[in-house]
Predict the 3D structure of the following.
Amino acid sequence: MPLFLNDEQAMLRDTTKDFVAEAAPVSHLRSLRDSNDPTGFSRDLWKQFAEMGFTGILVPEDAGGLGLGHVEAGIVLEEIGRNLSPSPFLTTAVAAVEALKGTAHAARWYPGIVAGETVAALAIDEGAKHRTDIVMTATRSGNGFTLSGAKQFVTHGHVADLLIVAARTGGAASEQDGVTLFAVEKDAAGLTASPERLADSSIAARVTFDNVQVDADAVIGEVDGGWAPLNRLLSAGRTGASAELLGVGGGAMDMTVGYLKERKQFGVAIGSFQALQHRAAHLYAEMEVARAAVLKAAQLLDTGDDRADGAVSVAKAMTGLATTLAVQEGIQMHGGIGMTDEYDIGFYMKRARVLAEMFGDANFHADLLARKSGY
Amino acid sequence: MTDLDTFRADTRAWLEENCPPSMREPVRSEKDAVWGGRDQSMLSPDQKAWMDRMAARGWTVPDWPKEYGGGGLSAAETKILREEIARLRCRNPLNSFGISMLGPALLKYGSEAQKLEHLPKIARGEIRWCQGYSEPNAGSDLAGLQAWAEDAGDHFVVNGQKVWTSYADKADWIFCLVRTSKKSKQGGISFVLFNMASEGVSTKPILLISGYSPFCETFFDNVKVPKENLVHELNKGWDVAKYLLGHEREMISGMGLGGTGGNPLIEGAIATIGLDADGRLADPLLRAQIATFEVRARAFTAMSERFIDELKAGRAHPAQPSTMKYYGTELNKARHELIMATRGSDALEWESEASRGGAAARQWLRTKANSIEGGTSEVQLNIIAKRILELPS
């Protein structure tokens, strides 16, 4: 399979590019922020995503979706990133859909997700830095389990209909065996989700589970065998976040290169200065390398290749590095105006920081790759 | 099974049968690399067999047409062959500027007679080529070259000097940029081919910081070049030169991939520094540097795959080789800095047997030229800025 978009994928990209730029440009994020919108995204926009078919992109056709892959999901996420469009797409239509795939929960949740009515959130992280350790406990009680513990950085957690929760039913914190994944509904007694606005104006919840009772059928997959669906969730989430980062970095780079052509000092466009040209060209190279890494990861995930996990870590780390450079160079090359709230480049910097942290930063994934390589 | 699945299975079986085990070991020194040419007395039996078997199938140049010695493979088949070669860790059967640089230029600009004369010999490794581009006063400003080719009826008479001619002292023929008009800088350059055994050609190796002499000064003193050896039109050599430079940059960028067979950076680090109780490299700061480097190296591997796929499909940006060259060579320099750092004083030995004659140190020094040869990193950044980002002059 060649490592570029095929004709159908290129068509999807063109459609998506136009749609997202029209429906949810950066001004959309700005107005949600300025109105202190308590949801953090527009439910109307989520409905429009459903009308476009985006919500069902990874849902199998026999379940009402499009039955497409991570490459296609990445195409949508890149445009979300480029326009900084607030959307539950990554958590719901990508990560949650993959976690539920092939389980009894698919029939329960897929219709609402495809219809753009259901929002899912991921209660995975337990500390400020993403780790694969799971400490939160789920103990057997009656016909089900009692969940106790706390999660953080749960994007959309305060409005989600469904929380996907990783908890420990056995084993030690760092072990893969003994993790169980649960589907928890929002109105469960003892569940508290406190919304916190983040630097990029998105809202993530700190979620506490105070002896939350769930039935045995809340288990996604097997008891103690939650690592498999959790890994599907994380691979999808990481690849998706990489694609979104690519869009954020690409958007910041395009805006910056555009500014270099327009802005005049000393009577000439500042983009004619070699000092700035070389920095822009170096940034372009980093972003191109990141782009290839993201597509590679998505293709390998779609073909079920056993090299996919490594490629996913490469993609997440590389987009983290490249996009961090893109937004830093973005502000620096814009000069003073880049520091103003009125100008959009700052929004890109904030979003890039959040996405770089989500599902593990560049160091986390570089470390993971090193362990896999035996050092 | 699809046709491609069958092709993959057949290819795998053929490679397993025909690639000698010693040709699946990593290339460890200059003499491990096979370059072909008239004098093949230095080749080991395995090197010779591996080159000849691949050449017999046209697989030294799998995607060239069969009539010119190629394999006639499609882009998809070529990719599969490449993947299977990498999977088995087979060495490149034939390193050749004829394959990586002149061949693509002749396929595009050469006459039918030139293609039939030169391409099959390149494919079979019979003739080794060198590149006469840079001159003492024409480096980054390549079009400022002065070597003069005087029209003498049925031939040219060439006088002048080239520099940084890779392996000129070992090459059989040269593809060379010469000036045939002084009226225009770029529009007065022609692209010619001639035999290095011609009267009036002399070479002088340049001793480098690595202690090796891969480059020469090359002198032309009234060298007769038949006019049939002019490629493309008179005074249009710059078109050929630029096209060829794209392929040269592609080749040099391949250094960013770090070669086939194992990972000398990681293996060397583990061997020298060791692992701690948790299985981590015992030097945490070096480990972090290596791990971050490996992210870029692996992402660049994907970038190379994407670039080649786009190139074969005719959808690569014409200036994209500059991106590849820039990134790949900077990466390769970083890799060798890390290799030296991980191996410490072991890697400083210059002549010892344990260091295989200072192989690591000499390679480290050699890589410093990567970001200079074939157009400096700064020239590549200029090209990206102007032709891809379209920043103003």
